[in-house]
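Schema walk-through. Below, the input block comes first and the output block second. Nothing else is stored per chain. Lengths vary across the set, and this one has 288 residues.
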Amino acid sequence: MQNFECERKRLILEPSISIRALSKREKEHLLSRALSSWSLENTMEVARHRFVATIRFTWQKGHAQPDHRGMIEKLLTGLRLFKTGGVGANVVYRRELKWQPGHIVGGAERHIWILPVQGPVYTLTLREAESLLRFWKRVYQQPLSNSAQVAIRWFNHGYQDWIPEDRIVSFVTAFESLFLRTGDLKKRSLVSRIPRLLTNARGRGQVERDIGDLWDLRSRVVHAEPYQAIDATRLVGTAEYYLRETIRRYIELERRLTPNTHRDILRWLDDPNVDIEKQRLFPRWQAI
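--- output ---
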């Protein structure tokens, strides 16, 4: 795990995905392999590891290979949606299957797969670790809708990018996946729907202004029009914060509303008679 710290030494998120602290012996083993097989840069990367994520899957001979990278993306998505902080993962060791030659010679990959990561260290306290387990179960208890999956994909694109302007384009595209239908007036719909989902009437004005600024900046960037780079730097953190919370709340709406299609959720958000705050739909997992 990159850029990851936790006061709890083991987190079992589900039977196939867990996180635990590296033992001294395991770290020495990984460093030994890194020194003999990889570059100095990769050896330094391994030296920074303190926790390891274990991904387990069953692969029957003759069937398609399971997508272990997709499972790693699922792990990182759950962590990133839970709270702020830069977290990533490297594939530094993989045990080969019994019928493959690599199993005979030790079962370790000869390369390292690195996902870019930025931001402050992702740190979980004991209380946050317990809350994460509940959050994970709630988010992944049933398949996510296509709208949520597309928004999460763009959220991860923006999370892993390094350029503020590009991150904002990705984040605003994720907002579009959640809050727009074909034929909607895009800016007006986003400025109306996102604040209603995020806050009460008293706090809505600031969110409306921020969403409007994000849309305007996104439009100038994608249409190659002049813009102030300082605006992107100022707004990127706000965009990430709003998007993380809207994805969490949108998923919760899918779990609680009936019917719960994308069109139904947007119609519910557009209804001025719905008092979202009074319905108490959203559990307080963790301040993000």
